[in-house]
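Reading a protein record of the kind used here takes only a little practice. These numbers are not coordinates but entries in a learned vocabulary of local backbone shapes. Here is one such record, which you should read through line by line.
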Amino acid sequence: MQIALILIFLVIVYVQVGYLALIWFLAHFFPRRLSVDEQAPDAISIILCVHNGAESVVARLQNLASCQWDGVREILVYCDGCTDDTAVKAEAAGVKGVRIISSNFKLGKWSAVNESVGKAQYPIIVFADLRQTFEYTALKELAGSFQDHSVGAVSGRLEIATSNSGQGQGVDLYWRMERKLREWEGRFDSVIGCTGAIYAIRKKAFCPLEPGTILDDVIVPMKIAVAGWRVAYNPKAIAYDPQALDPVSEKIRKLRTLVGNYQMLERHPLWLLPGHNRLWWQFVSHKHARLAVPWLILVCLGLTLAIAKTPLVWFFLGAQTLCYTLATTGWLLTSCRSKIVTIPAGFLLLQLTCARAFLAYLKSRKNPLILWHSGAVSRLSKSEMK
């Protein structure tokens, strides 16, 4: 029983920090550098999926049009079941190269991606979201990565405003770790999933998404990687998000992401196997092993309470008690910004969300669109806890 306790603890440590440390080592000592064996692309298509974004679409189009780019560009604005005048304002914005694609019903990002890529004119496709803005050189940086003929997709970097709450400080740390993880994965070989707010692909490498796909920014690059391409990471291609991370919004976003991981596990089980996915080890460690952590934590606590108390077991019990006490303190004292409590509080928040994700997936399988409505997500979370 003590051996089982130690093994479970080691698995938790590997998933949370071990994989991060290993990827850092591989990235620094065994990097796969990008080559320059093709000319840089001279034409790009930018896809902007919007649902009722009339208030922001003009400013976003102006930002995309102002980015440095010497070649030809088009901006496809996909109106996903808009009931406001998004399309009218986009057309009247006076931005060159704008094309409007409209859906009468809200179908979700997967449909927007499939239809927009099919109608794009140019070989490089850049994906952008409405809320963020691009750095002046972002398009040039993204396109430059395709000078390596092996690159089928490239992820940019998202900068998010710092949170003001205590729990949010822990979430901020998680996001910084996630961003470094993607950088190191890209330096070693390929990123497991791209930053949805800023990434680009070769049109010829694109495979259509299945209906109801939740994690389009993971599935699109993973399909490209499984086909043999490399998914690069360019930290100089930057998008800025003005909305600070806060526990409530991050809980909703993270729940949606974890539900998407369950969907991906169901729809693409062969990606877990070495013979079908050359990135299987990175894929499992980065995406699916995390789903098991909250349950392993519960098993670890149960074993600690149940088995005979030896010095080792007492150590585990004391360490867990301390961690939960600090996390609870950080959870309750939202104004406290000490890392001693904010980091455990952020970790606890993420694990609670992860534990809810499986039931949320079962409840949303028939209609994944409900995961984009905060009220529906809140009801899902409450019902799961009953």
Residues 381-386 have pLDDT under 50 and may be disordered. The CA atoms of residues 263 and 356 lie 14 Å apart. Residues 2-29 form the longest helix (28 residues). Strands lie at 43-50, 72-80, 98-103, 124-128, 133-134, 151-160, 198-202, 230-241.
